[in-house]
Amino acid sequence: MTLPLPALGSRPHEEVMVTHYDLLDSMQEPFPDMLELQADESLVNAFKRSGIQDAAMLEYLATSNIGRALSRPGKTSHVLFLNMDRNMEVHSVLLPQPEANRGLVVQRDADMHFVQRAVLIPFEHRTSLANGVVQTNLFDALDAEGLPDEFAPALVEVFAKRLDAHNALHKGDRFTFVYDATYYNGTPLGNGKIQAAELVVGGKHYIAARYGVGDNEGFYTPAGENLDRGMLRCPVEYSRISSGFSNAREHPLFGDIRQHTGVDFAAPEGSRVHATDAGVVEFVGAQTGYGNFIILSHGKGISTAYGHLSDFAAGLKRGMRVQQNQVIGFVGQTGWATGPHLHYEYRINGQFIDPETLPPPPAPMLKGRQYNAFRTQANEVLAQLAHNQSRIGALDD
Question: From its phi and psi, is residue 301 left (phi > 0), alpha (psi between -120 and 50) or beta?
């Protein structure tokens, strides 16, 4: 379905509901040139950097819905495919939209007006394997392999109920994961979900594969154990443990020896603090020493506490029920704190427990037909992990 749009210089076009898309045939309608917009790069700078001399096309793209799509937050880069002549004048532009399995084409018509249409694109979807060895931290290890930082939180989330991967990974530990990647005419357009992952932490192997659809999707061990059970191991993203649980520690402000009743996670001020499990707000307010402080009750005598916050999540109040991973506050240094960090406590019937020593709860297992369906779906990606591990093992011998 062709969607004629106003000529350049007329008022911005209105959104049009599309009910049919033509299938893009790259043989009949080739786009041999590619323009990649880097993170936060404008169309103007991208055109200038690439030497494209086409002010009319640039102005149209910048003021159309393509321009709005390129400026939408949440993506690190965008790729445009172009059909240009030797004078660097652009005859047509393709903006792929892999998440919707379609794209937008802009081209000049016979009257030199711009015409836009939506098309279905025969994207190629592949699984790719990534691996690396940690030298300092997960972000640096990803960078060393040329992998985007967006994989760090995704990888941590896979095992979030079993270990705090940000802080657990140390020099010599390894990661491997299989992920979706989308291509058009051999050009990578973007990365999708992690389908399977393995962490080797202190010689111990953690393996998981994705299974299910929609809200029922989750990660399972090869034996069919559900990894989506239990408390989050870390309430703050991109943090490090600056002080662990201790029965006898020199207080950083007062210099005396006293119990450190929780774990301190150092993180930039304003970092989001998440509820490690669903619960009810038992206390929210200021408390001596703790500064801005939250206590969540999780039932069966279990509670968690979050101290030194710079602020609370909007609307948070006593008696409110919160969900696991919900943002409840923000890292600060209120109360007795020498720098921005979160003081996190785990309590059972009022007794302080080291949250790092908590064993994972018993998890339900996939059985029978469900387990067979899981193995059928996950066998290929698990085999990729196993093959990679065997190869690394052979190199180590």
Answer: left
Cross-strand bridge partners of residue 191: 181
- Can you give the length of the chain in residues? 397
Contact 126/28 with Cβ under 8 angstroms? Answer: no
| Burial state string for 300-328 with b = 16 or more CB within 10 A and e = fewer than 16 | eebbbbbbbbbebbeebeeeeebebebeb
Q: What does the pLDDT read at residue 393?
A: 53
The answer to whether the CB of 199 falls within 8 A of the CB of 219 is no
Q: Tokens for 280?
A: 């009810």
Integer CA distances (angstroms), 127 to 170, 179, 243, in order: 27, 5, 40
181 class by beta-carbon count within 10 Å (0-12 exposed, 13-18 middle, 19+ buried): middle
Classify 292 as helix, strand or coil.
strand
State the pLDDT at residue 206: 93
pLDDT mean for each 10 residues of the chain (397 residues): 35 37 62 79 84 86 77 65 83 82 82 83 86 91 88 90 85 94 82 91 93 81 89 86 69 58 92 95 94 95 95 96 95 91 94 86 84 92 83 51
| Residue 58 host element (H or E) | helix 55-63
Distance CA 39, CA 61 (A): 18
For residues 378 and 388, give the distance between their C-alpha atoms in angstroms, rounded to a whole number.
16
* pLDDT (0 to 100) of residue 73: 53
Tell me the CA distances in angstroms from 62 to 43, 88, 90, 109, 139, one per residue in order.
7, 18, 14, 19, 34
Closest CA to 173 of 188, 185, 189, 159: 159
- pTM, two decimals, is 0.69
Q: Are strands 22-23 and 114-120 parallel, antiparallel or unpaired?
A: parallel
SS3 289: coil
CB-hemisphere CA count at 13 Å for 109?
Answer: 13
